[in-house]
Design brief:
Blueprint: H1 19-31, E1 44-48, E2 51-54, E3 59-62, H2 65-68, H3 77-87, H4 101-111, E4 121-126, H5 129-144, E5 148-152, H6 161-166, E6 184-187, H7 204-218, E7 225-230, H8 246-257, E8 260-264, E9 288-291, E10 302-307, H9 326-340, H10 352-373, E11 377-383, E12 386-391, H11 400-412, E13 415-416, E14 418-420, E15 424-427, H12 435-452
Parallel strand pairs: 3-13, 5-6, 5-7, 7-8, 8-9
Antiparallel strand pairs: 1-2, 2-3, 4-10, 9-10, 11-12, 12-15, 14-15
């Protein structure tokens, strides 16, 4: 009888934190910015695939991918080779002043995923999601000649001044930093699990549209609104998927009033939901898209994509010294190879996008099954490997304390995870996660949740 090998498991050689981790964390606390949070006592040393090992030799299963950044996992050989090859050629020639083939071809690849017949797009490269958002706001204001921007409650768009003004998830990001960007308003995000504005799960999308139209009649002149910026699937606010009718209705509202529609795909984009961009689960086309995080498997690069008819700002009006760095661009090319299936990752089907859809569906089904055993799991939602688990009290209110306890219980068993929203644990692993590795993660989660019960 053949005995199948046991799937790989986390290996905890010390208590958490181990002695080397504790020593580095103490040094870290003495010399780095006081703004860093440090919720988990883990200091990485090296990684392989979906596994990350700390300086004490403790190996953890990665279910958060550096906040949805490590698309291809840790030290993917195809990405490593691309980076090494580019480093031997040149590491920097400012893209604002000198064109480079590697970024030109990257832009060509990226726009192919959004262009439709008769509709050309262009790309501006930056270094971070916040930079992409800043560029999008500048472009929208410049193109329309209008100043007002509408964002959503629960959103996260970055921490630079314009981006932090648009962010609507936590007051701590704004406290003590004013004055912020003028002419910015926030409206509710249509959350079917916690519908705003007295609506239901089915009507909350229309309720938000009606709310915006009401603002246009009473507070904000519609002809002064340059753009509405929204996450097609909200990230930091709780991994929320809006009702299916919302984005088409929002597109129609923007068209009625000549408003640019900006989709922030920084967290949900780059194949995470099973499609290149999360908005592609609908049939809606935005005017501007912001992308970062998963674009280059951990190398710092971002992109602001816009319709050519919208990218009308003049030469020299915007730029970046480091944006579109060639080494990061090489990593982005390699990441796209795996997302598109040009290069296959063993055990992940035709492409990492398809793998995200398949393994994500498996995780969602299993997690929804766990709701029967654990009634404090109020909701399981998402698409692909963009999944949120919301913890609730017996009366259905968000239970942030239980969420925090669950998160630490999972971490203590070797599962790297991260919270979001009021009471949500996000599941955003590398897109190379296999069904077997997903099953290992589910077993660790189940064991942690049982310890709380």
């Amino acid at each position: 009888m053949t005995t199948l090998p046991r799937p790989r498991q986390p290996e905890l050689k010390t208590s958490l934190p181990g002695p080397k981790t504790a020593a580095i964390m103490e040094r870290d606390s003495q010399h780095l910015s006081t703004s860093y949070m440090r919720p988990y006592p883990f200091v990485p040393d090296h990684g392989e695939g979906v596994w990350l090992t700390d300086v004490d030799g403790n190996t953890m299963l990665d279910f958060f991918a550096g906040i949805a950044v490590s698309t291809t996992g840790h030290a993917h050989p195809h990405v490593v080779r691309a980076v090494q090859e580019q480093v031997t050629r040149f590491t920097h020639v400012c893209l604002t002043d000198y064109p480079q083939e590697i970024t030109t071809s990257l832009a060509e690849r990226m726009v192919k995923h959004v262009e439709k017949p008769g509709e050309k797009w262009r790309v501006f490269f930056g270094n971070s999601g916040a930079e992409a958002v800043e560029a999008a706001v500048k472009l929208a204001r410049n193109h329309t000649g209008r100043s007002h921007i509408i964002s959503t409650i629960g959103s996260f768009h970055g921490r630079t001044y314009g981006a932090i003004t648009l962010t609507g998830s936590k007051t701590k990001y704004k406290r003590g930093f004013g004055p912020l960007l003028p002419n910015v308003s926030h409206v509710p995000y249509p959350n079917p699990f916690r519908p705003p504005l007295g609506a239901t799960a089915e009507t909350c999308g229309q309720a938000v549209i009606d709310h915006i139209e009401g603002l246009f009649q009473t507070i904000i002149p519609a002809d002064e609104v340059a753009a509405i910026i929204i996450e097609p699937m909200q990230g930091e606010g709780g991994y929320i998927v809006p009702p299916a009718d919302f984005l088409p209705k929002l597109r129609a509202l923007c068209d009625r009033h000549g408003i640019m529609l900006i989709f922030d795909e920084v967290q949900a984009g780059m194949g995470r939901t099973g499609k290149m961009y999360s908005f592609q689960h609908s049939d809606v086309q935005p005017d501007i898209i912001t992308v970062a995080k998963g674009i280059a498997s951990g190398m710092p690069i971002s992109a602001m994509l816009a319709k050519e008819s919208v990218m009308t700002w003049p030469v020299g009006s915007h730029g970046s010294t480091y944006g579109g760095n060639p080494v990061a661009a090489a990593a982005a090319h390699a990441t796209l190879d795996l997302l598109e299936g040009v290069v296959k990752h063993p055990g992940c089907g035709t492409s990492l996008m398809d793998n995200a859809a398949e393994v994500g569906a498996y995780l969602m089904a299993e997690l929804r099954g766990m709701q029967v055993e654990f009634p404090f799991i109020g909701d399981v939602r998402g698409e692909g490997l963009f999944i949120g688990i919301e913890f609730v009290t017996p009366d259905g209110s968000p239970d942030g304390k239980l969420r925090d306890a669950a998160s630490m219980a999972m971490f203590g068993r070797g599962l790297l995870n991260l919270d979001c929203g009021e009471a949500v644990i996000r599941i955003s692993p590398p897109l190379i996660l296999t069904r077997e590795e997903a099953a290992t993660g589910l077993a660790l989660m189940r064991e942690a949740l049982r310890s709380l019960s």
